[in-house]
Amino acid sequence: MNPIFNKTATVAPPGAAVSGVDFDYRSTAVFRQLTLSFQPGVVNAVVGPNGCGKSTLLALLAGVLRPAAGTVRVDARDIAFAVQRSAVTDTFPITVAAAVMMGRWRRLGLLRRPSAADRAAVQRWISELGLTDLCDRTLGELSGGQRQRVLLAQALAQEAPLLLLDEPSTGLDTCSAARLIEQLHRCAGTGTTVIVATHDSVLIEAADQFVELG
Q1: CATH architecture of 13-77+163-213
Q2: pTM value?
Protein backbone atom coordinates (compact mmCIF):
# COMPACT_ATOMS: atom_id res chain seq x y z
CA MET A 1 0.00 0.00 0.00
CA ASN A 2 1.11 3.52 -0.78
CA PRO A 3 -1.57 5.75 0.74
CA ILE A 4 -1.90 9.43 -0.11
CA PHE A 5 -2.94 11.85 2.61
CA ASN A 6 -4.34 15.18 1.46
CA LYS A 7 -4.45 18.18 3.76
CA THR A 8 -5.99 20.37 1.08
CA ALA A 9 -8.76 19.61 -1.38
CA THR A 10 -7.88 20.00 -5.04
CA VAL A 11 -9.40 19.08 -8.38
CA ALA A 12 -6.41 20.06 -10.52
CA PRO A 13 -4.92 17.39 -12.80
CA PRO A 14 -1.70 15.90 -11.45
CA GLY A 15 1.56 17.63 -12.23
CA ALA A 16 3.39 14.32 -12.04
CA ALA A 17 2.29 10.70 -11.79
CA VAL A 18 3.50 7.11 -11.92
CA SER A 19 1.21 4.26 -12.93
CA GLY A 20 1.86 0.55 -12.48
CA VAL A 21 5.59 1.13 -12.07
CA ASP A 22 8.01 -1.73 -11.38
CA PHE A 23 11.62 -1.00 -10.51
CA ASP A 24 14.45 -3.24 -9.29
CA TYR A 25 17.81 -2.25 -7.83
CA ARG A 26 20.54 -4.89 -8.06
CA SER A 27 17.93 -7.64 -8.45
CA THR A 28 16.00 -6.38 -5.42
CA ALA A 29 12.44 -5.20 -5.96
CA VAL A 30 11.97 -1.58 -4.96
CA PHE A 31 8.53 -0.96 -6.51
CA ARG A 32 5.83 -3.28 -7.77
CA GLN A 33 2.82 -1.74 -9.52
CA LEU A 34 3.41 1.63 -7.86
CA THR A 35 0.69 4.14 -8.72
CA LEU A 36 0.79 7.68 -7.35
CA SER A 37 0.02 11.22 -8.42
CA PHE A 38 1.23 14.61 -7.25
CA GLN A 39 -0.70 17.84 -7.50
CA PRO A 40 0.70 21.15 -8.79
CA GLY A 41 0.42 24.23 -6.64
CA VAL A 42 1.03 22.37 -3.37
CA VAL A 43 4.02 21.04 -1.43
CA ASN A 44 4.02 17.24 -1.72
CA ALA A 45 6.11 15.25 0.78
CA VAL A 46 7.25 11.66 0.16
CA VAL A 47 7.88 9.89 3.45
CA GLY A 48 8.85 6.45 4.70
CA PRO A 49 11.74 4.48 6.22
CA ASN A 50 15.24 4.23 4.77
CA GLY A 51 15.30 1.95 1.75
CA CYS A 52 11.62 2.36 0.88
CA GLY A 53 12.41 4.06 -2.44
CA LYS A 54 11.94 7.78 -1.78
CA SER A 55 15.09 8.79 -3.67
CA THR A 56 14.35 6.24 -6.39
CA LEU A 57 10.90 7.72 -6.93
CA LEU A 58 12.35 11.21 -7.40
CA ALA A 59 14.94 9.84 -9.85
CA LEU A 60 12.19 8.14 -11.83
CA LEU A 61 10.19 11.37 -11.99
CA ALA A 62 13.33 13.25 -13.07
CA GLY A 63 14.03 10.74 -15.83
CA VAL A 64 17.37 9.76 -14.30
CA LEU A 65 16.07 6.21 -13.85
CA ARG A 66 13.70 4.24 -16.08
CA PRO A 67 11.05 1.83 -14.81
CA ALA A 68 11.11 -1.83 -15.78
CA ALA A 69 7.35 -1.60 -16.33
CA GLY A 70 4.62 1.01 -16.08
CA THR A 71 4.58 4.67 -17.00
CA VAL A 72 5.98 7.89 -15.57
CA ARG A 73 4.29 11.11 -16.62
CA VAL A 74 5.29 14.68 -15.83
CA ASP A 75 3.53 17.77 -17.14
CA ALA A 76 6.77 19.71 -17.53
CA ARG A 77 9.68 19.88 -19.93
CA ASP A 78 11.97 21.52 -17.37
CA ILE A 79 12.64 19.63 -14.15
CA ALA A 80 14.76 20.84 -11.24
CA PHE A 81 16.20 17.94 -9.25
CA ALA A 82 18.33 18.51 -6.14
CA VAL A 83 19.99 15.31 -4.94
CA GLN A 84 21.13 14.69 -1.38
CA ARG A 85 24.22 16.62 -0.38
CA SER A 86 26.09 13.37 0.25
CA ALA A 87 25.87 12.62 -3.49
CA VAL A 88 27.97 15.68 -4.40
CA THR A 89 31.73 15.71 -3.94
CA ASP A 90 32.92 18.40 -1.56
CA THR A 91 36.19 18.87 -3.45
CA PHE A 92 34.63 19.92 -6.76
CA PRO A 93 36.53 23.17 -7.58
CA ILE A 94 33.63 25.54 -8.14
CA THR A 95 32.47 28.63 -6.32
CA VAL A 96 29.07 29.08 -4.73
CA ALA A 97 28.04 31.68 -7.35
CA ALA A 98 29.10 29.41 -10.22
CA ALA A 99 27.35 26.41 -8.69
CA VAL A 100 24.07 28.30 -8.42
CA MET A 101 24.46 29.62 -11.99
CA MET A 102 24.60 25.99 -13.14
CA GLY A 103 20.88 25.95 -12.41
CA ARG A 104 20.40 28.26 -15.41
CA TRP A 105 22.36 26.17 -17.90
CA ARG A 106 19.32 24.52 -19.44
CA ARG A 107 17.83 27.91 -20.21
CA LEU A 108 21.14 29.21 -21.56
CA GLY A 109 21.87 26.38 -23.97
CA LEU A 110 25.29 25.81 -25.49
CA LEU A 111 27.74 28.71 -25.64
CA ARG A 112 25.27 31.34 -24.43
CA ARG A 113 26.25 33.95 -21.90
CA PRO A 114 24.01 34.53 -18.86
CA SER A 115 21.53 37.33 -19.42
CA ALA A 116 20.52 39.97 -16.93
CA ALA A 117 17.49 37.82 -16.08
CA ASP A 118 19.73 34.81 -15.44
CA ARG A 119 22.02 36.80 -13.16
CA ALA A 120 19.02 38.27 -11.35
CA ALA A 121 17.53 34.83 -10.72
CA VAL A 122 20.83 33.54 -9.36
CA GLN A 123 21.31 36.56 -7.11
CA ARG A 124 17.76 36.28 -5.88
CA TRP A 125 18.17 32.71 -4.66
CA ILE A 126 21.65 33.33 -3.30
CA SER A 127 20.11 36.11 -1.21
CA GLU A 128 16.98 34.16 -0.25
CA LEU A 129 19.03 31.26 1.08
CA GLY A 130 21.54 33.43 2.92
CA LEU A 131 24.55 32.71 0.70
CA THR A 132 25.57 36.25 -0.26
CA ASP A 133 28.68 36.31 1.92
CA LEU A 134 29.78 32.92 0.58
CA CYS A 135 29.62 33.61 -3.17
CA ASP A 136 33.37 33.46 -3.79
CA ARG A 137 34.05 30.39 -1.65
CA THR A 138 34.39 26.93 -3.15
CA LEU A 139 32.09 24.09 -2.13
CA GLY A 140 34.94 22.41 -0.29
CA GLU A 141 35.27 25.41 2.02
CA LEU A 142 31.66 25.21 3.17
CA SER A 143 29.98 23.41 6.04
CA GLY A 144 27.50 20.67 5.31
CA GLY A 145 24.52 22.94 5.88
CA GLN A 146 26.00 25.63 3.65
CA ARG A 147 26.57 23.15 0.81
CA GLN A 148 22.98 21.99 1.22
CA ARG A 149 21.76 25.55 0.78
CA VAL A 150 23.87 25.90 -2.38
CA LEU A 151 22.22 22.83 -3.90
CA LEU A 152 18.80 24.21 -3.00
CA ALA A 153 19.61 27.61 -4.53
CA GLN A 154 20.83 25.88 -7.69
CA ALA A 155 17.56 23.95 -8.01
CA LEU A 156 15.35 26.94 -7.22
CA ALA A 157 17.26 29.15 -9.68
CA GLN A 158 16.08 26.87 -12.49
CA GLU A 159 12.54 28.18 -11.96
CA ALA A 160 11.26 24.87 -13.34
CA PRO A 161 7.57 23.87 -13.17
CA LEU A 162 8.55 20.58 -11.47
CA LEU A 163 10.79 20.82 -8.39
CA LEU A 164 12.18 17.59 -6.89
CA LEU A 165 14.16 17.80 -3.66
CA ASP A 166 15.80 14.85 -1.89
CA GLU A 167 16.16 15.38 1.89
CA PRO A 168 16.51 19.15 1.43
CA SER A 169 16.56 20.08 5.12
CA THR A 170 19.47 17.78 6.04
CA GLY A 171 22.15 19.81 7.81
CA LEU A 172 20.10 23.01 7.92
CA ASP A 173 19.71 24.96 11.13
CA THR A 174 16.25 25.90 12.37
CA CYS A 175 16.28 29.32 10.70
CA SER A 176 17.45 27.95 7.33
CA ALA A 177 14.89 25.14 7.47
CA ALA A 178 12.09 27.62 8.15
CA ARG A 179 13.28 29.75 5.23
CA LEU A 180 13.29 26.65 3.00
CA ILE A 181 9.69 25.82 3.91
CA GLU A 182 8.64 29.39 3.17
CA GLN A 183 10.32 29.27 -0.25
CA LEU A 184 8.74 25.93 -1.13
CA HIS A 185 5.27 27.31 -0.43
CA ARG A 186 6.07 30.38 -2.52
CA CYS A 187 7.08 28.15 -5.41
CA ALA A 188 3.94 26.08 -5.02
CA GLY A 189 1.91 29.28 -5.00
CA THR A 190 3.09 29.99 -8.56
CA GLY A 191 1.72 26.62 -9.72
CA THR A 192 4.97 24.65 -9.41
CA THR A 193 4.68 20.96 -8.60
CA VAL A 194 6.89 20.62 -5.51
CA ILE A 195 7.85 17.09 -4.41
CA VAL A 196 10.10 16.59 -1.42
CA ALA A 197 11.50 13.29 -0.12
CA THR A 198 12.12 13.74 3.59
CA HIS A 199 12.38 12.30 7.08
CA ASP A 200 12.00 15.75 8.64
CA SER A 201 8.83 15.85 10.76
CA VAL A 202 8.70 19.66 10.59
CA LEU A 203 8.85 19.64 6.80
CA ILE A 204 6.26 16.84 6.63
CA GLU A 205 3.93 18.82 8.89
CA ALA A 206 4.37 21.88 6.67
CA ALA A 207 3.52 19.96 3.49
CA ASP A 208 0.06 20.21 1.93
CA GLN A 209 0.00 16.55 0.89
CA PHE A 210 2.13 13.56 1.74
CA VAL A 211 2.62 10.12 0.28
CA GLU A 212 3.88 7.30 2.51
CA LEU A 213 6.02 4.58 0.99
CA GLY A 214 6.61 1.39 2.91
Answers
A1: 3-Layer(aba) Sandwich (3.40)
A2: 0.86
